[in-house]
């Protein structure tokens, strides 16, 4: 496998986590009872869609197939959260906690992608780092929201 093929694989995997992020925030926006939180989650959906478009553009430019699916882990997690909320209700703290868990998974996915920085073009490394920083800022905001909800 050459560097371009490896880079495509890395980005396809990363984009599955970004797609998980989109689905997670769509769910959060639909169940939250707080209008400010719903607005924030909708902003994060748009941000994530932009991230996915950037990643898919990079994949295409390297000759790979774009990635529009989500991870199995994310599907299982969202299913579990649906079951949990049907039993306990969708309180704001639970919604925020599930978003925080998803964002922490995204951080791991960005770190995993950056572990392959030697196989990625410099502009792609910069894109991944920029997205990782935005995800990190989201983690911080979600932590603050969680503390306010406690």
Automatic annotation (TrEMBL):
UniProt-listed SUPFAM superfamilies: Ferritin-like
The DUF2383 domain sits at 7-115
Give the matching InterPro entries. Answer: CHP02284, DUF2383, Ferritin-like, Ferritin-like_SF
- Gene3D superfamilies per record: 1.20.1260.10
Q: Which domain of life is it from?
A: Bacteria
NCBIfam families documented for this protein: PA2169 family four-helix-bundle protein
The name on file for this protein is: DUF2383 domain-containing protein
Q: Which organism is it from?
A: Pontibacter actiniarum
């Amino acid at each position: 496998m050459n560097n371009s093929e490896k880079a495509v694989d890395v980005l396809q995997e990363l984009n599955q986590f970004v797609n998980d992020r989109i689905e997670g925030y769509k769910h959060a926006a639909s169940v939250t009872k707080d209008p400010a939180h719903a607005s924030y989650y909708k902003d994060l959906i748009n941000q994530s869609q932009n991230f996915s478009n950037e990643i898919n553009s990079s994949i295409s430019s390297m000759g790979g197939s774009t990635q529009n699916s989500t991870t199995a882990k994310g599907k299982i997690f969202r299913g579990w959260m649906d079951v949990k909320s049907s039993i306990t209700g969708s309180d704001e703290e639970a919604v925020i906690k599930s978003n925080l868990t998803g964002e922490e998974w995204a951080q791991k996915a960005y770190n995993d992608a950056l572990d392959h920085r030697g196989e990625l073009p410099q502009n792609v490394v910069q894109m991944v780092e920029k997205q990782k920083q935005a995800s990190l800022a989201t983690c911080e905001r979600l932590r603050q929201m969680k503390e306010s909800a406690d």
